[in-house]
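Hi R.,

As promised on Friday, here is the backbone we talked about, encoded as C-alpha cells. Could you run it through your design pipeline when you get a chance and send me back a sequence?
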C-alpha cells in the first residue's frame, strides 16, 4: 500500500544555484493550478523541493520536518488540495493550498500580480534549517 504522506505548513524551496527566474517560473506554474479543472496535472518547469511538516509517512514521526527530492509534477485534486510527485522516486505528498506557510502564500500572490521581490524576501525558518542538514556549498535558499 502506498504512503499517503500529508505535508502541512508547506513551502517550495529553491536553491540559489538555479536563480530567481527559476523560482518565479515554478511559482507561476503552481499558481496556475487555481485556474484549471480538478484532476489537472502540471509538470514543474524548473528545480524546486517541497518542505514542511510531514505526517502519515513511513520512516518519519508525525510533525517531523521534511525536504523532498526535486518535484516533478503537481496535480490539482480539488479546489483546495494538491499532490506533489517527486522526480527521483515518484513519492507523492498531499497538501492543501490553505495550509501552506505564510511565505509561500505571499510568493504565490506576488507572482500572480507580477511583482515578486528580491531573492531573500520569502525566506522562512524551515528553509534556513536545511543549510545545516544538506550542507552542500550551494545550500542557500532564495
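Update: got your reply. Pasting your designed sequence below so it's all in one thread:
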Amino acid at each position: 500500500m502506498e504512503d499517503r504522506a500529508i505535508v502541512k505548513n508547506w513551502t517550495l524551496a529553491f536553491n540559489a544555484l538555479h536563480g530567481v527566474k527559476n523560482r518565479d517560473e515554478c511559482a507561476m506554474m503552481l499558481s496556475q493550478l487555481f485556474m484549471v479543472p480538478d484532476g489537472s496535472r502540471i509538470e514543474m518547469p524548473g528545480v524546486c523541493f517541497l518542505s514542511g511538516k510531514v505526517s502519515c509517512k513511513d520512516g518519519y514521526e508525525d510533525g517531523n520536518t521534511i525536504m523532498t527530492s526535486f518535484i516533478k509534477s503537481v496535480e490539482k485534486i480539488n479546489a483546495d488540495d494538491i499532490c506533489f510527485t517527486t522526480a527521483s522516486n515518484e513519492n507523492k505528498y498531499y497538501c492543501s493550498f490553505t495550509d501552506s506557510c505564510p511565505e509561500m502564500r505571499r510568493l504565490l500572490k506576488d507572482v500572480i500580480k507580477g511583482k515578486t521581490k528580491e531573492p531573500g524576501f520569502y525566506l522562512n525558518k524551515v528553509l534556513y534549517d536545511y543549510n545545516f542538514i544538506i550542507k552542500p556549498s550551494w545550500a542557500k535558499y532564495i
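One thing I noticed while checking it: The mean pLDDT is 76.

Thanks again,
M.
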